[in-house]
Every structure is written in structure tokens, then in C-alpha cells.
Specification:
It is a single chain. The chain has 144 residues and is an all-alpha fold. It is flat, with a radius of gyration of 19 Å.
Length: 144
């Protein structure tokens, strides 16, 4: 991965994680400062934060791992876990009584998938793709 691409991935991760954490943790402040769409909907801002956090985590995982499945599972696990927390926190706002349980189960299953995937790749998600990536790199003296 080139330095430029790495920098853009870091920028993307920050661009998702900061507003995601803000929206989830301080939804009223996020609404009043950034997303001034009325009416204010607490659960909507919790869910918005959950999924932005999941995307941000996937981008961070992509910096460390070359295994697309592990990266996807890391992002999905993070998003699903925070989404489940959102439904636990907001259970008095509506939805189905089963939502917190089913969403928590989904998060646990995704986490189990991530653990299994990483166990099969002892180098923590680095697959033979990393070696292929290096072999495809054009030497500096031959770069166009």
C-alpha cells in the first residue's frame, strides 16, 4: 500500500469514526451542530453512529490486514455490536422486544466468524495476497 493510499485510508477512518462516535455518544450535540434535520430522533442518531463506527473500524482494519474477509468481519462486528447497544439503550422508544436480543446474537456470530478467520490466518489477517502485492510492485527505476 502506498503512503498516499494509507494516508487516504486514515483520513477516511477519522472521517467516519469521529462523527460516528459523536453521533452515538452525544446525539443531541451532533444534531444541533451537524445534522440539523428536524425532528430530532434519538434512535436514528444512535444507529447512524453505529454504522459510521463500523465503517471506520473496517478502514482501520484494512491498514493492518490484507484479508478482505477479516476486514469485512471486523467492520461488520463493530457496527453490529454498537447497533445492538443502540437497541438496548433505546428499547423504550419503540421497535420489537426481540430486537436487542437478535441484534446482539448477530454481533456475537460476526465476532465468532472474525475470531475463526483470524485463527486460520496466524499472521493476523495477512494472507498470501500481501506477498502477491509486493511482487506486483514496480521497482522505482522502472516506474513510469
Amino acid at each position: 500500500m502506498t503512503r498516499s493510499v494509507r494516508a487516504l485510508v486514515v483520513l477516511g477512518a477519522v472521517a467516519f469514526l469521529v462523527p460516528g462516535v459523536w453521533s452515538f455518544g452525544w446525539p443531541r450535540s451532533f444534531h444541533e451542530t451537524v445534522a440539523r434535520f428536524d425532528p430530532f430522533n434519538l434512535h436514528l442518531f444512535h444507529d447512524l453512529g453505529a454504522f459510521q463506527i463500523g465503517i471506520g473500524v473496517a478502514l482501520v482494519a484494512a491498514l493492518a490486514w490484507r484479508d478482505a474477509v477479516a476486514v469485512a468481519l471486523a467492520g461488520a462486528t463493530a457496527g453490529a455490536a454498537v447497533h445492538a447497544v443502540s437497541h438496548v439503550m433505546d428499547r423504550d422508544l419503540g421497535g420489537r422486544a426481540s430486537d436487542p436480543y437478535l441484534l446482539s446474537l448477530l454481533a456475537l456470530l460476526l465476532a465468532a466468524g472474525l475470531v475463526l478467520r483470524l485463527r486460520h490466518h496466524p499472521s493476523r489477517g495477512a494472507t498470501p495476497g500481501r506477498a502477491r502485492e509486493r511482487s506486483r510492485t514496480v521497482p522505482q527505476d522502472r516506474a513510469v
